[in-house]
Specification:
The chain has 113 residues and is mostly helical. The protein contains 5 helices and no strands. It starts with 11 loop residues before the first helix and ends with a helix.
Length: 113
């Protein structure tokens, strides 16, 4: 789906951060800004209102909020990866493994494939 261009106003510090991210990720500033807008727009009304209210505080409070959001996102990413791995595991062929020796034998045989 083709994108559309919109303009946004932000402070100089945010512009510097967007530029640094764009260089680091080898992407255009517009792509980085678009991703940020996509994330913010996906939040429910209550979350956007809370963000606006909380970011009116001092920079240390904003940093603490950003760290907490990061923690939640990384945990969700880990949970999703775990669910995907479990869904793709084929354990039926393993049968009942009762002893450590049986488990090790199967593990070794899997690495030989």
């Amino acid at each position: 789906m083709p994108g559309k261009t919109i303009s946004a106003y932000t402070d100089a510090e945010t512009v510097k951060r967007i530029e640094a991210i764009a260089v680091q990720e080898q992407r255009k500033k517009a792509q980085v800004a678009g991703m940020a807008l996509q994330f913010f727009a996906a939040l429910p009304d209550e979350a956007r209102a809370a963000w606006l209210q909380m970011t009116a505080g001092n920079p240390a409070e904003r940093e603490a909020i950003a760290q907490e959001i990061t923690r939640v996102l990384l945990q969700a990413q880990s949970d999703l990866a775990h669910r995907r791995i479990l869904a793709e595991m084929q354990t039926q062929a393993l049968g009942a493994l009762d002893t450590e020796d049986e488990i090790l034998e199967v593990a070794v045989s899997l690495t030989r494939r």
